[in-house]
Amino acid sequence: MDDRELSLAVVGLDHANSDKSRSNRRFEVALCAPGDPVELRREPKNKADRNAVAVFSERGIQLGYLTAERAPWIGGKLAAGEEVSAVFQERLAAVAVIRVRFGGAAPTLPPPRAVPVYSHDFTPDPDGPEWGA
Prior knowledge:
Shape: globular
Distance between the termini: 48 Å
Radius of gyration: 18 Å
Low-confidence stretches: none
Mean pLDDT: 88
Order of helices and strands: EHEEEHEE
Number of strands: 6
Strand content: 25-35%
Oligomer: single chain
């Protein structure tokens, strides 16, 4: 992996898109596979945040936005004309994750996260008054 690469969270998955069909962002995220190209679009006229950077799937459906902490930096690079390539990395419970690389080359995906394996004979402790239940 190159030091010009990073993984970024995509937030706002629970909001409806403003297109005519009011497309569902979570559904679109579910259709994305690791390595699928995504597009970053600056939204300087966004009323909530003039630094907003929207993330769109290869089908042109919005997935959400980069976080408010990262958007000004990434948006600045886009505004300066720096080449940025981005792909879908993974979906987590509350966010999607994209992989971004500066300089024009394709991003490399990190190894997938290990999925925890739970034993089928697991029994949780009973809740009782001693636990404040």
